[in-house]
Design brief:
With 68 residues, the protein is an alpha+beta fold. The protein has one domain. The protein has helices at residues 27-32, 58-61; strands at residues 9-11, 18-21, 48-52. The protein has a three-stranded mixed sheet with strand order 1-2-3, with no helix packed on it. Strand 1 and strand 2 (18-21) form a beta hairpin. The longest helix is centred in the middle third of the chain and has 6 residues, at 27-32. The protein is globular and about 30 Å long.
């Protein structure tokens, strides 16, 4: 059986700067599986520009701790 991740979405208009919609608890795993979201210039050179939270549910905000 294939494991599934929780609901987060990354969108970009140019493939360089990304907006995350929600930050699920497994966000770190999702970023690791998506090369476009990996740091470009050192550990703080993230292409993630912003996070949009659709609500305050734990399964939408817990991944914010992974972004610190």
């Amino acid at each position: 059986m294939t494991s599934r991740t929780q609901s987060s979405l990354a969108v970009s208009g140019d493939g360089e700067r990304w907006l995350l919609i929600n930050a699920s608890p497994d966000l770190r795993q999702q970023i690791a599986a998506t090369p476009a979201l990996h740091p470009k210039a050192g550990p703080r050179g993230t292409p993630i520009d912003a996070v949009l939270l659709t609500n305050g549910d734990v399964d939408h905000v817990a991944g914010l701790l992974s972004l610190r």
